[in-house]
Amino acid sequence: MIETVNLTKKYGSFTAVEDLNLSISEGTVYGVVGQNGAGKSTTFQILATLMSPTYGSAYISGFDITKEPAKVRQVIGYMPDFFGVYDQFKAEEYLHFYGASYGLSVAEREEVIPQLLELVNLTGKRDSYVDLLSRGMKQRLCLARALIHNPKVLILDEPASGLDPRARVEMREILKELKAMGKTIIISSHILPELAEMCDEIGVINCGQLVATGTVSEIQTKLQVHKEIIVTVSGEMERAVRFFEGELEVLNVSVVENGVGKIQFGFRGSDSSQQALIKKAVLADIPLLGFQTLEKNLEDVFMEIMKEVEVEGE
Ligand SMILES: Nc1ncnc2c1ncn2[C@@H]1O[C@H](COP(=O)(O)OP(=O)(O)OP(=O)(O)O)[C@@H](O)[C@H]1O
Question: What is the rounded distance in angstroms from the CA atom of residue 265 to the CA atom of residue 245?
Answer without folding.
Answer: 9
